[in-house]
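WARN no homologs supplied; continuing
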Amino acid sequence: MQALHAIPSVEVMATTRGQLDLSDAGAIQRVVREFAPGHIIHAAAFTAVDRCESEEQTAFAINATATAQLVAVASEVGARLTYLSTDYVFDGEKSTPYLETDTPNPQSIYGRSKFAGEQAVGDQGQIVRISWVCGRLGQNMVKTLIRLATSTDGPLYFVDDQHGCPTLVADLVPTLIRLVLEAPFGTYHVTNQGATTWYEFARSVIALAGGDPERVQPIATVELDPPRPAPRPKNSVLENAQLRQMGWPLLPDWQSSVAALVHELTQR
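OK structure emitted
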């Protein structure tokens, strides 16, 4: 493992799955004890939402049990823990944006396992909920849509009855670091501003990538064929109430940040 200087006076260690397998309690204890960090950002998770439905044991082992083990060893070495969670902890039935104080009611195995992770953290760390995450690295919907815009003919169907807020990694990271270093324990919603649907989001990205947005057609979740194994929340818009209350700047509107990401990914 290599220690990197990400920001002044802060040494950051990032591990691969091979270096720290969250299914191995011994590895969790060994790595944390050896590095003895002041802060732990727990961003790793089993996020294959539909696979979680058939791999419940793995989902809870990674998202819940490993989190509890990290909480314990963080306390042992005196580290502050920040746990990245998800909009899927809510059932999606609320008609207005979800506040940090709203009671979770997850409907999928993924959501339940992540909420179990939140419960393991409790008041011993920070919980940062994000949603619809997109960034330069890894697989995400923006990359999928760019590929579809340039290589697929015919209509593209996206649901227009699931509402949420995209979270752009480039915008999230500065706020996340500030939360880690400056904010008290508690729960925070951190998303880009503005709610949308997957249908509207797809049209926007397809157009930005030089494709024809008219190819994108709306479809209801119940019309998906085959249906998705895991239920999705109809409304998972997260209100960033705690950031507002602290007077912190909110993340930018999602449209401008998505445009910047599409430009970066298509100009390479």
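The domain at 3-266 is CATH 3.40.50.720 (Rossmann fold).
OK
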